[in-house]
Structures are given as structure tokens and as C-alpha cells.
């Protein structure tokens, strides 16, 4: 029995991430596991970048992302299922924050989405590939589209 299934979504792509979220919920339900859903915001905290943003920008961005994440989960899985989900908003590099969240949550499975790869993905490696390469637990990749 898994203790936690972590699903990573990009809230800027709700239509393409809905199937990923549904699959993660199915996998969690099969094992009686808690479903944690994470989204990652880029880090604008460097001094030379953060100076362009108003004070409190990060806190506002995290609140807006959390609200959007909760709405995505509610719309995709329903209010009753959403009530049992732990919603996490992290800030930083996507694959690093997904791995950190999985470790801190004690996740036994990470569910990520992958789009159809193009040449840039083969050269640079998308976040999903990095999660697969570096995760200490199993990773379930859902092909979007």
C-alpha cells in the first residue's frame, strides 16, 4: 500500500493536465493512498530580478497558484475528492521541487505528464525526463494528447 501518490501539474495548462490528474487519482485510489498535487512557480527571488516586482509579489503569486490548483482539482475530480487532496505550491526549478516535494511527503509514486517530444526535448531533456532519471521512487508518465 502506498502512503502517498504525488501528481505534478502545470496550472497554466489545465486542459492538458486534467488527464494526468485523473490518472493520479485512479492510482492513489487503487492503493488507498493520499493524493498530493504539486505545481511549481518559477523563482524570481534573485536580487536583480526581484527588484522589478512589488513587495509581496511572491506571496500573491503563491496564493493565486494555490487557488488555481484547488479549482483545477475540484473541476477535474469533484469537490468531494478534492477535499482529501493535499495541494502544494512550490517555487523553484520544476523537477527539483517535484523531487523535494515527493521526498518530504514520503511519496511512493510520482505521476507526471509528458507531451510529444520535439528536438529541443531530446537535447535538453524535459522536466518529466529529469524527474524519471533522478527520482528515488517509481514514476508513472502520462502521455498528454
Secondary structure elements and pairings:
Elements lengths: L3 E5 L5 H18 L2 E8 L5 H4 L6 H21 L1 H4 L3 E6 L2 H12 L3 E6 L4 H6 L2 H8 L3 E6 L2
Parallel strand pairs: 1-2, 1-4, 2-3, 4-5
Structural commentary:
By secondary structure, the chain is of the alpha/beta class. The protein has seven helices and five strands. It has helices at residues 14-31, 47-50, 57-77, 79-82, 94-105, 119-124, 127-134, and strands spanning 4-8, 34-41, 86-91, 109-114, 138-143. A five-stranded parallel beta sheet has the order 3-2-1-4-5, with helices on both faces. Strand 1, helix 1 and strand 2 form a beta-alpha-beta unit. The longest helix has 21 residues, at 57-77. The radius of gyration is 15 Å and the shape is globular. Belongs to the universal stress protein A family. Pfam families: Usp. Residues 2-143 form the UspA domain. This is Universal stress protein. InterPro entries: Rossmann-like_a/b/a_fold, Universal_stress_UspA, UspA.
Q: End-to-end span in angstroms? A: 30 Å
Q: What is the global morphology?
A: globular
How many helices?
7
Main β-sheet, spatial strand arrangement: 3-2-1-4-5
Low-confidence spans: 121-125
InterPro entries: Rossmann-like_a/b/a_fold, Universal_stress_UspA, UspA
Pfam families: Usp
Family: Belongs to the universal stress protein A family.
Domain UspA: 2-143
List key phrases describing it.
globular; Universal stress protein; UspA; 145 residues; five-stranded parallel sheet; alpha/beta; 5 strands; 7 helices
Brief synopsis:
The protein is α/β, with parallel strands linked by helices. 50% of the residues lie in helices and 21% in strands.
Amino acid at each position: 500500500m502506498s502512503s502517498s501518490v504525488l501528481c505534478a501539474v502545470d496550472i497554466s495548462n489545465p486542459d492538458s493536465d486534467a488527464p494526468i490528474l485523473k490518472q493520479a487519482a485512479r492510482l492513489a485510489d487503487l492503493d488507498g493512498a493520499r493524493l498530493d498535487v504539486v505545481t511549481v512557480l518559477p523563482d524570481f527571488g534573485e536580487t536583480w530580478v526581484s527588484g522589478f516586482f512589488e513587495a509581496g509579489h511572491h506571496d500573491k503569486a503563491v496564493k493565486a497558484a494555490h487557488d488555481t490548483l484547488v479549482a483545477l482539482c475540484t473541476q477535474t475530480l469533484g469537490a468531494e475528492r478534492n477535499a482529501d487532496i493535499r495541494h502544494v505550491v512550490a517555487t523553484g526549478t520544476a523537477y527539483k521541487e517535484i523531487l523535494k516535494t515527493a521526498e518530504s511527503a514520503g511519496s511512493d509514486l510520482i505521476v507526471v505528464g509528458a507531451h510529444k517530444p520535439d528536438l529541443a526535448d531530446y537535447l535538453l531533456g524535459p522536466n518529466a525526463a529529469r524527474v524519471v532519471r533522478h527520482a528515488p521512487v517509481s514514476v508513472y508518465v502520462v502521455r498528454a494528447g
